[in-house]
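Re: the 168-residue chain
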Amino acid sequence: MAEEKNRRVLDTVSKWMRHDGEEDPPEVDGEKIPPLDWDIFKKALDYAYDHEAEYEKVADERQFTAVRVATADFLYAPQIDDLDVSAYHGQIGDVIKVRAHDDVLVKDVRVLIVDKNHQLIEKGFAAQVGDHWEYVATVQSPVQPVRIAVSATDLPGHTGLSHADKSF
């Protein structure tokens, strides 16, 4: 899936670079491509050339150049696929599970728990456990309901966000 997304991003960029603006927007895999924000693409390329070495291993595995992989990574933020708060009941030791993905790497997942007035109850980093991340509560929640917000960060520093409200 990540390889397909990388291919589509770079096919898109290539077609826009050749597009003269006089005809209908170019297509990739039969879909019309929206206009490309060249400022963002320039930032993506700057990032890719500055961080090329960090992407060499992934690029070799995917049989792409490191610049190509890094550019695509810059253009897409990670996503939260699932936020499982079913085992959280406001007690110390309760576990919150997060599934997140990125086209290259989810670098970290952070969890923030606040009350209904947005007052902080606790926050911290989740630990990666196999194919998901787990946050273990360190503070007993004095109130309910709470809002549990999570963010996943990738190598370029972009974040994907999600939240869930929980009463217990």
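The chain has two domains: 2-75, 79-166.
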